[in-house]
Amino acid sequence: DKWVNTTKQTGDIPGVKVGDKFRYRPELAIVGLHSHFQCGIDYMTEDGEMIATSIVESGRYANETESPVVMIYTGQGGNPKVSKGEPIDQKPERGNRALMNSKATGTPVRVIRSYKFREESGYVYHGLYIVDNFWRKRGDYGKFVFKFLLRRISGQPKLTLCNS
Amino acid sequence: DKWVNTTKQTGDIPGVKVGDKFRYRPELAIVGLHSHFQCGIDYMTEDGEMIATSIVESGRYANETESPVVMIYTGQGGNPKVSKGEPIDQKPERGNRALMNSKATGTPVRVIRSYKFREESGYVYHGLYIVDNFWRKRGDYGKFVFKFLLRRISGQPKLTLCNS
DNA sequence: TAGACGTAGA
DNA sequence: TCTACGTCTA
């Protein structure tokens, strides 16, 4: 009945390697990387706590990527590019709360990022990251947004990708 | 690069029979029934005129279906259930214009309708219809909408379907 | 029922 | 750039 019938889990997905490419968001759901068709942050409930399983970076939020192993990911909510209505302060709920809990528990988060290279575009699995820190600041619309500092776990295959 | 690479055409699609079911909108595009993922009215340009190739009825607009061979299809635009913004008068452009031209030229239009039966849902190809008439009236939001009277071409396989 | 970093075509 | 009868999870 549904495209997706996988159980949510944190960590690597068996059969999916770092660098694997996917053309469409639903494909990420099919293989179990990220269950949402649109939402950027996926999470599960473990012992009554929400824990992030994966995030997708598509460029619709103002994320700053400093290096191949560090990324700053913007929390969800209040982005008029994404949903209707006026910009509002992001709240520590849903995906934002889940990423906070991922930091607290040190749980790895799968990172998928969109790419565009010579007319070809899609999503690439970048591997596992740790939520190293988070803070709140004023975003482009003058409202508070959450920023999550993600650090790539070392020892994973190096990614050489033209992402711009 | 794209899911869809078919040439648009009016009339039946080779290999697709009346009664064929599809689970998702993109599947309609893949087989060539209807190229749009969301838009309800598909059309092509022929001799400089837009001609409707197919319509999808999903229940988001207020359509009245009187009988198995007649349907009244609402034009596109100004529906807050579908797109952002305030309700506005529908304009004789895009899909609406194309359906008007289909009436003028007597060109058959493929009709696909959503169905729901015992937890199973999807889309069914209902066959070819003629645009028999159209008019303008006040819709649910007080704005003008177009109504298209479609009449099923006789001689096609009978459809026995639980559509409600 | 509402929210969500979707997609393609005009 | 914007519109469009999507589709899922919570």
Q: What is Rg of chain A? A: 15 Å
Shape, principal axes of CA atoms of chain A: globular
List the helices and strands of chain A in order: EHEEEEHEEE
Structural class of chain A: mainly beta
The helix content of chain A is 10-25%
End-to-end separation of chain A in angstroms reads 37 Å
What value does the average pLDDT of chain A take?
90
Largest interface: A-B, 6 and 6 residues
Strand content of chain A: 35-45%
The biggest beta sheet of chain A is recorded as: 8 strands, mixed
Annotation field: number of helices of chain A: 2
Number of E-type strands of chain A: 8
List low-pLDDT spans of chain A: none
The oligomeric status of these chains comes to homodimer
Task: Describe it.
Two copies of one chain form a homodimer. In chain A, about 10% of the residues lie in helices and about 40% in strands. Chain A is mostly beta strands and about 160 residues long. In chain A, strands 1, 2, 3, 4, 5, 6, 7 and 8 form an eight-stranded mixed beta sheet that branches. Chains A and B meet through loops of A and loops of B.
Q: What's a quick, concise take on this entry?
A:
The structure is a homodimer of 164-residue chains. Chain A is mostly beta strands and 164 residues long. Chain A contains 2 helices and 8 strands.
